[in-house]
């Protein structure tokens, strides 16, 4: 099982890094869209759509929504769009995504009582759009920036740092449950360990870049906090649905959603802060 898990992780990392650094920038949004649509297929199951046709229609609806957002933010060129308004349009989409995650935080905190608000199939399906479409827009925006490939990699590093720091600190010192009704294995100590690990990352980047400390602190630590929320939200929906993994697509890892759940919250938050604070990593 461990060998299978490691081999899958190596293959996924290789595919992602090759696409990130060698795929032409104009094609990268399509690559991310493919990942998002696979995730949409899995989210359809989380929503309660079990038949292949209904799941395929859900994926199609997600694809149409991504295409409409792509036109709005200029990823798909349209003559009528003023290029100077593109950053503002990205900001609209990212702000909507982050507002959704603020609501999601309340639902996670209130589970299982909050399931009365979102537990029906329609609401879970709608939740999937709010989770996945802003993720696509966020990663597409970050990749389009100067040194965008490295910035996308930074999001992944922040998420991985929070996860690894949380795992080891939680395993050694974990006593107090973070969200016992959602994910009993997560502890407050592990959560703080992930934040502390990313605090080290803040000072490393502060030393290596020309950015002031406090904007960098906001970018990395808030993204780190958001990544935990993304993980908890998917855990909550899976618990309500009564399933362990979103799918069995990735040997040893479950589904694609199980690998990108933290990124679905981290990416919009990172992108919005990056856009708002105009940080430079040149």
Provide a concise account of the structure shown.
This protein is mainly α and 282 residues long.
What does this structure look like?
The chain is built from ten helices and two strands, in the order H-H-H-H-H-H-H-E-E-H-H-H. By secondary structure, it is mainly alpha-helical. The protein has one domain. The protein has a two-stranded antiparallel sheet with strand order 1-2. The longest helix is centred in the C-terminal third of the chain and has 29 residues, at 213-241. The mean pLDDT is 93.
Distance between the termini: 42 Å
Strand content: under 5%
Specify the overall morphology. globular
> Helicity level, as a percent range?
over 70%
Helix and strand run: HHHHHHHEEHHH
In total, the number of domains comes to 1
Class from secondary-structure proportions? mainly alpha
Spatial strand sequence of the major β-sheet: 1-2
Low confidence ranges: none
Oligomeric assembly: single chain
Using only CA atoms, what is the Rg?
A: 18 Å
């Amino acid at each position: 099982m461990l060998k299978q898990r490691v081999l899958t992780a190596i293959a996924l990392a290789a595919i992602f890094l090759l696409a990130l650094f060698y795929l032409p920038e104009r094609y990268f949004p399509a690559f991310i869209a493919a990942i998002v649509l696979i995730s949409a297929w899995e989210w359809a199951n989380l929503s309660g759509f079990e038949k292949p046709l209904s799941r395929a229609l859900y994926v199609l609806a997600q694809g149409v929504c991504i295409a409409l957002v792509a036109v709005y933010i200029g990823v798909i060129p349209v003559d009528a769009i003023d290029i100077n308004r593109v950053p503002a349009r990205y900001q609209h989409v990212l702000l909507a995504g982050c507002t959704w995650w603020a609501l999601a935080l309340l639902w996670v905190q209130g589970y299982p009582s909050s399931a009365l608000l979102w537990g029906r199939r329609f609401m879970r399906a709608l939740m999937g759009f709010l989770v996945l479409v802003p993720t696509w827009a966020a990663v597409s925006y970050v990749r389009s920036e100067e040194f965008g490939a490295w910035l996308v990699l930074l999001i992944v590093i922040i998420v991985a740092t929070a996860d690894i720091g949380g795992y080891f600190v939680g395993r050694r010192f974990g006593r107090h449950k973070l969200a016992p009704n959602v994910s009993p294995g997560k502890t407050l100590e592990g959560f703080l360990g992930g934040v502390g690990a990313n605090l080290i990352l803040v000072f490393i980047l502060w030393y290596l870049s020309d950015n002031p400390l406090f904007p960098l602190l906001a970018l990395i630590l808030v993204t780190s906090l958001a990544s935990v929320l993304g993980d908890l939200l998917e855990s909550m929906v899976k618990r309500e649905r009564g399933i362990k993994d979103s799918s069995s697509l990735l040997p040893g890892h479950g589904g694609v959603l199980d690998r990108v759940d933290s990124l679905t919250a981290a990416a919009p938050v990172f992108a919005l802060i990056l856009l708002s604070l105009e940080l430079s990593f040149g």
